[in-house]
Fold this sequence. Notes:
Elements: E1 9-14, H1 17-27, E2 31-35, E3 39-44, E4 48-54, E5 62-64, E6 67-69, E7 79-85, H2 89-98, E8 102-108, E9 121-127, E10 131-138
Amino acid sequence: MSNLLGVLETCLYVDAFERACPFYDQILGLNSIFRDQRLCAYDVGGRGVLLLFLRGGSLETVKLHGGTLPPHDGHGPVHMAFSIAAGELAAWEERLADAKAASNGRAAARAFTSAIPTGTCSNWRRRDCGRDIRTFRTPARRHHA
Length: 145
């Protein structure tokens, strides 16, 4: 059986790029790799892509050079998480507090799933049009031969 290697893309739907994009550009420091009137795509550590779609902007099939994208949209509260290095938790907490991204809570992430390494903790932040943004502090993983 083939195995999944990770999550390649995560989509969020925003009401206004002028409110959402500065948070991802300036506060989180993500690099935009594509922008148009309905989509802003960000590289996330060279391992994935965060897609911000303008809410209501993708209700029709989009024809591209290489094919088509079906209609999609989203509403309501959503959740996502970014991984950070274990030693950078305090710096990220300060950075997000300075950006007025209020803390919603903190949890030992291992309580949710055994797939997350022991020692991982997460911080929940409310920012960007009501989205919960979660940062994970993960300990170094041991590599097995």
